[in-house]
Write a structure and sequence with these properties.
- The longest helix is centred in the first third of the chain and has 28 residues.
- Helix content is 69%, strand content 0%.
- It is mainly α.
């Protein structure tokens, strides 16, 4: 689990730095996109990175907590919708080369931290203990 959390942290760093270095200069060059394109892409990049950092910090706790699992599903759903919208809006090789690995990493984080949810995390003994009054007397 610790290895997966470290991988999520590295994916968050990659989403933060590599994506901003690759995607923000082309966003400034689109004359048809408008002035808000840079802000929207910057907010999307920051949201992607925050989603991966969420998995890096509380990834192991999502297995036992229903509200954290729900939050993680919403984060992955946002990442998939936002990444697909970026790919649809800007079908350039740089966007595809950056967003497709991030989307694959989002699906991997979902299958690692959210999907194998434990139904009942409580302690269960292997067998019922015999009570002292039901035990046969010692010989």
């Amino acid at each position: 689990m610790l290895l997966l959390q470290a991988l999520a942290f590295l994916a968050g760093l990659a989403a933060l730095f590599a994506t901003s270095l690759t995607l923000l200069p082309p966003a400034q060059l689109h004359p048809f996109a408008g002035g808000a394109t840079l802000l929207v892409m910057g907010a999307g990049i920051l949201a992607f990175a925050c989603g991966y950092f969420f998995f890096a910090v509380v990834g192991y706790r999502t297995l036992r907590s229903a509200w954290r699992r729900t939050l993680a599903v919403l984060i992955v759903l946002f990442q998939l919708i936002a990444g697909s919208a970026m790919i649809y809006r800007y079908p350039e090789p740089a966007v595809l080369g950056v967003m497709l690995p991030l989307l694959c990493m989002s699906i991997f984080m979902f299958t690692s931290f959210v999907w194998p949810a434990k139904r009942d995390p409580g302690y269960r003994p292997r067998r019922w203990r015999e009570r002292a009054d039901e035990m046969p007397p010692p010989k």
